Amino acid sequence: xxxxxxxxxxxxxxxxxxxxxxxAAWLTLKAFTVTIRHLLLTLFKxxxxxxxxPEQTRPYSxxxxxxxxxxxxxxxxxxxxxxxxxxxxxxxxxxxxxxxEHPNPEIEKFPRQFNIDMLRCIYCGFCVDACPExxxxxxxxxxxxxxxxxxxxxxxxxxxxxxxxDAKGPGYRPNDQFVQAKIYDKSKQTCxxxxxxxxxxxxxLLESMINKRQ
Length: 214
Prior knowledge:
alpha+beta, Alpha-Beta Plaits, two-stranded antiparallel sheet, 5 strands
């Protein structure tokens, strides 16, 4: 019983095609020429793609989604106002925030606790996009070695003092240049979670961030 097709389907004889191919030894030598060419380029031109990791690392893009960073104000206090927008937008539900009343009447709340479970995080950057205060960004740091699960729960202290931020710099964030938020500098600032500095959020910044994301 022959099968009828709407279009002409070519019939390929796999055995005949395999026998018509050049000899396996010739194909092996042809493949070795690629290896030898790269070997000569490495020896005489120094054109080697290999790096001495971890002593050497490759530069990452400014949009790299690495370990999170909590930004601060000029006085070193957390920029976060515990609005829960990042926790709400997180698809992995890895962000836990406990809010407290802020002593500054200009600022409604501040986070008593801000924890990110890095084992659950999928590094999507939704929390950064959802934050209206530019209080959380991502870095280019990707080394997260831990001996037990408790070390993968990043608290406020870990999120503001990232060891790789000086070497690698900030990563994914809505604005290339920080408008109000700053990265915490341990040598110049002391981080007091509630701020006592009168600071009102600029609606112009919020409007510019919304327009940029559209």
